[in-house]
Target: Fumarate hydratase
Amino acid sequence: MASADRIRLALPFDRAALARLEAGDSCLLTGPLYTLRDAGHVRLLAELEAAGGALPYGLDGQAIFYAGPTPEAAGRPFGAVGPTTASRMDFAAPALHRAGVAATVGKGRRSSEVRDACRATGSVYFVACGGAAAYLAKCVASSETVAYDDLGTEALRRIDVVDFPVFVGVDVRGRDVYDLV
Model:
């Protein structure tokens, strides 16, 4: 079972570090994290297909956070940035993992196809706490829109996070934290 200690992870991920994680491990992420939601995933998949399976925007080895941040507030890049229900992106996650995305971050369970993709590609799904969007915004140091600006909150953004709290929802062996409880 998972350790009670938080594991500090630098982004982008070292695949060896991901391989040591277990479902349920509590982690703190620091470094670049990319936000993207439903409509952005549709566009990203179309670009992935058009490029013959090569990820655009430097997403190879990166992590995608399923979030739609609010505008700036209190001198921070966002007033709030909370996780979106991850299962809504299950249609895209396996293809993105196969193309090189190392991890995803959201809330809730994932499908068996996503768990299989994590196992096959050595990728991880992290769970962020729902209802803590204002707190999570305090962990964001900067934000830059990378693509799909016309999608507003669903645009692809690169955010830099510091000590962003998550736990391992699905590890590289396909073990799911929701099956452990």
Observations:
- The mean pLDDT is 94.
- The longest strand covers residues 156-170.
